[in-house]
Amino acid sequence: MDNRVNSLVRVNDFVVKFANVNGSGSASANGLFARAVLRMGVPVAARNIFPSNIQGLPTWYEVRIVEAGWRGRRGGVDLMVAMNPQTWDKDVAEIEAGGYLFYDSTKPLPPSKFRDDVIALGVPLTAICNETYSDVRQRQLFKNIVYLGSLSALLDLDPQEIERLFAEQYRGKEALLESNRKALQLGRDYALANFECPIGLSIARRDAVGERIFIDGNSAAALGAVYGGATVAAWYPITPSSSLAESFASWCRKLRAEPGTGKQRYAIVQAEDELSSIGMVIGAAWNGARAFTATSGPGVSLMQEFLGLAYFAEIPAVLFDVQRGSPSTGMPTRTQQADLISCAYASHGDTKHVLLLPEDPAECFEFGALAFDLADRLQTPVFVMLDLDIGMQDWLTEPLAWDDSRRLDRGKVMTAQDLDAGRDFGRYLDVDGDGIPYRTYPGTHAVKGSYFTRGTTKDRYARYTEEGPAYVDNMQRLQRKFETARSLVPKPVMTRAAQPTNAGVIWFGSTGAAMAESLAELERQDVHLDRLRIRAFPFDDAIPDFVAAHDHVFVVEQNRDAQLKMLLVNECGIDPAKLTSVLHYDGTPITERFITREIGEKARFYNVTPLTGRRPGVRNGKAA
Amino acid sequence: MTYLAKPKLHHPGLPKNALGYTRRDYEGAISTLCAGCGHDSISAAIIQAFFELDIAPHRVAKLSGIGCSSKTPTYFLGNSHGFNSVHGRMPSVLTGAALANRDLIYLGVSGDGDSASIGLGQFAHVLRRGVNMVYIVENNGVYGLTKGQFSATADKGSKSKRGAVNNDEPIDLVLLALALGATFVARGFSGDKAQLVPLIRAAVAHRGAAFIDVVSPCVAFNNHPGSTKSYDYVREHNEAVNRLDFMPDRAPITTDYAEGSVRDVMLHDGGTVRLRKLHAEYDPSDKVGAMAYLESRRAQGEVVTGLLYVDTESDDMHASLRTVDAPLNSLGDAELVPGNAALVAVNASLR
Predict the structure, then answer these.
(1) ipTM score here?
(2) What CATH fold (topology level) applies to the domain A215-397?
(3) Model pTM?
(4) How many interchain CB pairs under 8 A, A with B?
(5) Is the CATH number 3.40.50.920 carried by domain A493-605?
(6) I need a surface site. Which of A46, A151, A553, A616 has the fewest CB within 10 A?
(7) pLDDT tens-digit map of A350-379
(8) C-alpha angle A139/A140/A144, rounded to 5°?
(9) CA A442, CA A284: separation in Å to the nearest integer?
(10) Which of residues 194-253 of A touch B (CB under 8 A)?
């Protein structure tokens, strides 16, 4: 450690990246590392970067230790835990100058494999494990725990926090608990004996996590579905959405078993394909259950015909679309926000759908529950648009909360009592002027209220017709219903810049993680932007108002074709020249550095500067 | 024309069932299919079966896909909710409906194009899952609504109305259903109501996936010499059909088989179906035997009808999923929403 003078010195603000081989059991140890940091009161932003593979290919886990609480990727690596010989060269090259390289030193490596400006920390992990364990599988698995022990010493990570996590994880499995403790101690002892601990990077106990929880969006959305009263889930496995359906099953086992009998207050079917899963959802919702499917872009493509039926026949259906790299099979294990158009206008003919755009797992929970109320209220498909970055990564997010006085809103459902009281039932009759008709569940009444559901044209009383005026009447009502949807979906969130400005920025979803940090950085660079985070489609009127109130508006999104911008231009009649796209679509989550650079450069070009005292005529974001 | 309601004239002398309903209460709108269409005979058999079973019409949900057969649910059980869904996808919609409310009776109506071509996948999986339903395929070997193309059940070598020969092997839905785990498998003929009505009744009484393939001649496109789905072929008659360029205005033809041996089969609801049609040695509880028998007869160009297989011990999808006894669509906030206290515990486990 002769070049210590040049080494990075940072407390609670650095990036550790674990380079592993898929299937080597590293995920568990890496997750323990992140959670132990959280237990010390220091926020982390952690991401798995993984291939479409089960065993053998490279996989990475990046943990950004960030006391400031930013949730996006920073970019760059300060400590590389290089456990994969396949990717060694690339991994070593990625380390910031003055950074650290942790590796298994059992087998000597030539000096050419190292960098002069990076401090190498070799621990003979394989040798330690081979001496300690006779079982081959154990030798591999405990290697991960041994490096965790070494890191705890090198980074001043409290080993007691790791041991407490062991105790929680292996409750009732004392043998496993003890062997994990032992492995941890072996790694820790070696590091303490051979290095000056801690190195320049260290973790110091804080109280910066607070009540926040660490959860992935798929689990949170699935829990939202439980709270939203979903009883039927039909799905077909597809990355990155599979864990949403599986998580729903596991929440239901805990929260939805009938007391006494243990029977299920839910039904989950793994369908034969996505056509079938959306068909089951539609059948169940038609019959009065709350139903959903979870899928990704290719699945949404397969559901197109059914989505048109659901729109036209007015069936509530909830779809969680966990977006991934597209088109075609694209990048199944990478993130994108590229299904906006294919979902907003899914199916043939004149169709439009409600989209909810959560920004983090807490909102996945909130919108996951809300989607069922909206679908029932509006009697139409509702999409909850996650992406891989929100869906499959654990995020530090606000604790989940539920208002116990809240009731499920089943929408306009006519009962046998209503029918007996003589209420006129027309399945497609707009009684209230909001475009939303009443429906009955099958089996409601012996002689009243039955109707025939069909994808063909029908009149207000659900009778088959091919008459043009009846068709137009129905399509116009559906348009009115979509206007009603506009007033029911979550409002955009507007925040003014610290200083008056003629420029704004619009984004949605997971982009928010990097956006928050980038806006702070841009502010330091004297680039001030009013902010608008879109949370749903159809768009609230505040959105075009926001654009109208600014000279330049950046639209930041994670796809190639500027799909949000397209929707804004198309739906709000906005002059495209007012909108400047910032597009990130290489499959990795957008970073603070990327947004700051892109907006910074363009802002200078547009001469985006504070307005104070210079341009009194320009209105500022009147959007509420 | 399907929006034309059938006049509801109840003759005071019409016989009533145990619920006080007459046969007319089980009817639907006036059919818009061609006169003499086998499908209308099947609708009549469905009406008769539900009337005889004393099932209130609104306790039935009728679902279909797309095609002539899938139009028929409009023509029966007018007080039932119906769902004319997407081509080939009725099984998934029915499965979802059955998940939502286990207390209704589910009647799926489909055709050979709907089930054997575009919907073969869903046909297979709905049977595998043991959805509690009656699944009827009105099988005419031809696409009627699009005017006479072959379907996947058309026999190899059979001729279309225009003279084209079908070169592809036929899909035998009955054999498939047996292989896929349907627990009630039957084949009927639209022209034989005396056989079909009891088959439908037995299928309704069965718990699990009940499948009935009903050979149903298409008078417009597949009722000519060279067709193996014509009235004549199926009845082994040589009677000539009407000219092909106009629609015969006549009542559907019915057939009465001579009675064979008698066998009683007990069903889930305690009822008994008495079988008369098949060979005396035929055992409908022997799946392997059924498959061998069907194949051997098929090789000789024979269409075997009757109850071909039944598993009287079968169970359904809800049993395998262990869902609660109450229909899922009847559960409210108290049963479904765990409340904030549960969330507090969830939050604590995620720190």
Answers:
(1) 0.94
(2) Rossmann fold (3.40.50)
(3) 0.93
(4) 233
(5) yes
(6) A616
(7) 999 999 999 999 999 999 999 999 999 999
(8) 110
(9) 11
(10) 209, 211-215, 223, 226-227, 229, 231-232, 234
